[in-house]
Amino acid sequence: MKYYKLFLGVFILLLIYVFIKSKYLTVKIFILEKNIKISTSTINIPFEFIPLKDSVNKIKFYFKEKKQKKFILPEYTLILKKGQKYNNEHIIKVEDIRHRYSKFYVSIEEILPTRKAKSFKVLSKKQIEKIFQLVSIKEKKINSKQEIQTNLNISTFSVKEVKSQLIIPTVSVEKTKVVEEKEKIIALKEKPDFEIYVSTEEIKNKYFLADKLNFRYYLINKNKNLSYKAETNFYLKDSFDNIISTQNYKFSVAPSQIYEKFIQFEIPKDISLGIYYIQVITNINEKKDTRNLGSFFISDSPPKISLTKKPNIKYKMTNTILVEIEDDRGVKNVDFVEILPKSNQEKKYSMLLIAGDKKTGLYSYTTQKITYKGVYRFYIQAEDVDNNIVKTEIYEIGIFK
Question: For 313-328, how does the pLDDT look when each residue is reduced to its tens digit (9 = 90+)?
Fold first, then answer.
């Protein structure tokens, strides 16, 4: 009895642990110990984001006053592998602080593989007021042409979770000078830095004619200053590299942003059966990126069988059973399979096409006289010209006089 209670207690604790664990995001985000840069017009907050598993996450910064939220663009949609670091600086205009004294938060939403969201406080109202006071001091000293040198200490704030933590350490702000012309020169020298990601999880190994093939395409601009103009071509090709269908898109991606596109190909009804694949070609800043997604097989759709109506099975009489068969390329044969009541052995009989054609036809089978009482059991089996075989459920019909 004692051991039973012990095991029950351990089991309950395990369930609680799993429940709590499922609520936490498996990511880490840090406000770095590097300088928060403050000028008279902007505040740059550096941060580092690290996922603990392969995932797609959206990061948003916002001010909160009572129940209202004011989001500060840009948002960051990141597709990262486990342990891959993402560093950036979030820029806040001083105007936003002037018009909205409030607490400053960061929101993390896991889009894939699951949908979870968490919000953490970055700066408190008092800390924002100190920053604003510092900005005012800098403005006064700039106007009087005095040298700017001051420090702001922001107390450490940390949130720890099982697999998620936010750590905002002490931040020191030192003398900074914003020179727009110099930033433009740096932006021009910045090398193209982007990443292309194609989600192939939705692509199946086998498709039927008239099916729809879906996947997602992402182009991630990792530059902080450069915008990209890109053109992407998506090709559905056969094993001989013949183009079956194509899609073309032209788009631009702002700095530190992501372009996302949902791609859908409809499998034509009149193409040959066989192996096909998707090719993706992206042209960006005179660079060409080509990648072939995994191959898949396109097969004929299997036949569709429908019982026209529930048959009446009469004792010591013959009974006719009718079914409708549809297939986009044609039916080869249709069998009526009777299941004997005592031995459960199966007896197969060919059904006769009495109306329509091989693509859409009405098939018939007339049983022998039923010499037993109880339940009559049978199913229908159809095979098309491409050897796709389909069976119905086992029908059980009561025998009556």
Answer: 999 999 999 999 999 8
